[in-house]
Amino acid sequence: MDLTLFGWGDAGWADELTLGAVMTIVVAACAFALGILIGSLFAAAKLSRFRSLRLLGEVYTTVVRGVPELLIIFLVFFGGGSLLRYVANALFGFEGYIEPPVFAIGILCIGVSAGAYSTEVIRAAVLAIPKGQIEAAKAIGMTPSVRLRRILVPQSARFALPGMGNVWQYTLKDTSLISVVGLVEIMRAAAVGAGSTKEPFTFYLAAFFLFLLLTSASNRGFIRAEKWANRGVRSQ
Q: How much is the pTM?
């Protein structure tokens, strides 16, 4: 293994791998936030008293969790390109090739996938809130918005933290899939380095350690967050 390959500047690949790691974190963070938003909406749908909304939530989680994330990326990337070309041709008569923004595609696809898992985590967290707290809040005249702000969100966030930690790890690792559409994150940077230097084992081992570093740091962060969220809570 030639460690001189990981020097900085034009002579090494450390800066490219570092930028790839930064891109991985940015995409994962944006997709995770999008997943929480989508998951909250569909968790509310699955908890709704309306059968049509519950069915919509069930269809979303079943379909997205049952389809490989890579296939979703391909469908959105190529389908989005076809849609953009159709719109450009219909409105402006443009017939050239249009490639959808890979950064946005990556966030959208991974976020939609993370949202399906977040839906179940958030739904379970809401159901874990003791019904007596909601009934007591109604009895003292709390409005739905106040109950949401003071009871549902704080309590469900605490219950959801362990599960959302798993969703974050899943989201972080799934960023490697968007390398297939050309976004330069850790795996794409490692693939380019491996192809340029003919040292695939060296660069993929570096990617291995980068992902391990990110997931380990994330795991410690969520453990600390759980301890903070559960401070003052009596253990059963």
A: 0.88
